[in-house]
């Protein structure tokens, strides 16, 4: 696969409006307590130069998804044609091994105990023609979805990990 879909995020543009989080939750009609996308406020620096930044995080559809590697029942796979990481909830046993291996805390577990996460609105959006609601809603275009090569994807993952303190 030469390119694959992935998220990019520009922390300098994010105004922490939570539009992406709300759009995801309402579009996908997510259950209470489950957050496929979350906006976090990150504090950094030392007094008196303390600063804050925001980061919008969900499944990053990683170039090399650890969640898929660690799933004991192979319920998580990466689609070869577009790089989107998907979950077969019929196979999931709810062991949470994927959560322990994900550097972004993306796997979520609802009332049924099975893993769920962002799938880039795969069943509801044609990514070649439109953005998923989280990116479409962002008023400052801090959040974007695009096809990127593996190097760009790894770089984006590294930057988000760094923002999250990892």
Task: Note the beta-strand portion.
Answer: 15-25%
The residue-averaged pLDDT reads 93
What structural class do the secondary elements suggest? alpha+beta
Query: Strand sequence of the main sheet, in spatial order?
Result: 1-8
- The unreliable regions are none
The total count of helices amounts to 5
Taking Cα atoms only, what radius of gyration do you get, to the nearest Å?
A: 16 Å
The number of strands is 8
**Which architecture per CATH?**
2-Layer Sandwich
Q: Which topology does CATH recognise?
A: Alpha-Beta Plaits
Question: Gist?
Answer:
The chain is of the alpha+beta class. The protein has helices at residues 19-28, 66-70, 97-101, 133-137, 150-163, and strands spanning 4-9, 38-44, 51-57, 76-78, 85-87, 108-109, 115-116, 143-148.
What does this structure look like?
The structure is a single chain. The chain has a single domain (4-163), classed as 2-Layer Sandwich (Alpha-Beta Plaits). The protein is an alpha+beta fold and 166 residues long. It has a two-stranded antiparallel ribbon with strand order 1-8. A two-stranded antiparallel sheet has the order 2-3. A two-stranded antiparallel ribbon has the order 4-5. It is globular. A hairpin with a 6-residue loop joins strand 2 (38-44) and strand 3 (51-57). The model has no long low-confidence stretch (mean pLDDT 93). The protein contains five helices and eight strands.
Give me some keywords for this one:
single chain, 166 residues, alpha+beta, Alpha-Beta Plaits, two-stranded antiparallel ribbon, 8 strands, 23% helix, globular
């Amino acid at each position: 696969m030469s390119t694959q879909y992935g998220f990019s995020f520009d922390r300098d543009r994010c105004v922490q409006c939570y539009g992406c989080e709300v759009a995801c939750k309402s579009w996908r009609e997510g259950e209470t307590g489950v957050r496929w996308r979350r906006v976090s406020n990150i504090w950094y620096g030392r007094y008196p130069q303390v600063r804050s930044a925001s980061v919008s995080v969900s499944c990053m559809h990683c170039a090399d998804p650890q969640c898929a590697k660690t799933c004991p029942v192979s319920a998580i796979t990466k689609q070869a044609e577009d790089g989107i990481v998907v979950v077969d909830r019929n196979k999931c046993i709810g062991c949470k091994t994927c959560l322990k291996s994900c550097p972004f805390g993306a796997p979520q577990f609802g009332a049924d105990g099975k893993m769920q996460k962002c799938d880039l609105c795969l069943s509801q959006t044609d990514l070649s023609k439109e953005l998923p609601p989280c990116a479409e809603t962002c008023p400052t275009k801090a959040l974007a979805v695009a096809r990127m090569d593996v190097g760009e994807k790894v770089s984006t993952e590294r930057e988000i990990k760094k923002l999250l303190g990892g």
